[in-house]
Amino acid sequence: MKVVNVAVGIIIKRDSMDGDKYFVCRRAAHQHQGNKWEFPGGKVDTGETPREALKRELKEEVGIDVQGDPVLEFEINHKYPDKHVNLYIFTVDAFKGEATGNEGQEAKWVNLPTLSSLEFPEANAAIISHLQSN
Ligand SMILES: Nc1nc2c([nH]c(=O)n2[C@H]2C[C@H](O)[C@@H](COP(=O)(O)OP(=O)(O)OP(=O)(O)O)O2)c(=O)[nH]1
Ligand SMILES: [Mg+2]
């Protein structure tokens, strides 16, 4: 099966008083892994680095301008029955603009306990444990 490379952004609003908040979106029903929550992002185009793809996708999907060079935390290689994905997981805590569901998708800022209660695609389990262990 062909591997699909995907750039994924964990967008964080740092808040030492109230606890950090994470920006999550809901995938459309017709998409792969439809109706599940996700960290915004999308496929890496030919000739693009994962970091470039991240910046492009976060502008398109969420309307933010990523500042500087976001940190690549780790990669997740996961085989769904119908698709093999390689996710490049970045942390994004420096950006300009207000994050919104720029393509009409449901979107919200959530704290870690709420995040943990949402239904994400199977591949995301490692991301959630990573955030919980920090
Ligand atoms: N963006 C994102 N994709 C994820 C996550 N977890 C996960 O398994 N995926 C999978 C679902 C999809 O198979 C793939 C992302 O593809 P996508 O459909 O969002 O790609 P895209 O934004 O470029 O959209 P398009 O080309 O289909 O219009 O990665 C996640 O947290 N965020
Ligand atoms: Mg996408």
From TrEMBL:
Its cofactor is Mg(2+). GO terms for molecular function: 8-oxo-7,8-dihydrodeoxyguanosine triphosphate pyrophosphatase activity; 8-oxo-7,8-dihydroguanosine triphosphate pyrophosphatase activity; 8-oxo-dGDP phosphatase activity; 8-oxo-GDP phosphatase activity; metal ion binding. It is an enzyme of class 3 (hydrolase). 8-oxo-dGTP binds at R27, H32, E38, F39, P40, G41, N124. It catalyses: 8-oxo-GTP + H2O = 8-oxo-GMP + diphosphate + H(+); 8-oxo-dGTP + H2O = 8-oxo-dGMP + diphosphate + H(+). GO terms for biological process: DNA repair; DNA replication. Keywords: DNA damage, DNA repair, DNA replication, Hydrolase, Magnesium, Metal-binding, Mutator protein. InterPro entries: Mutator_MutT, MutT-like, Nudix_hydrolase, NUDIX_hydrolase-like_dom_sf, NUDIX_hydrolase_CS, NUDIX_hydrolase_dom. Its EC number is 3.6.1.55. PANTHER family: 8-OXO-DGTP DIPHOSPHATASE, NUDIX HYDROLASE FAMILY PROTEIN. Belongs to the Nudix hydrolase family. This is 8-oxo-dGTP diphosphatase.
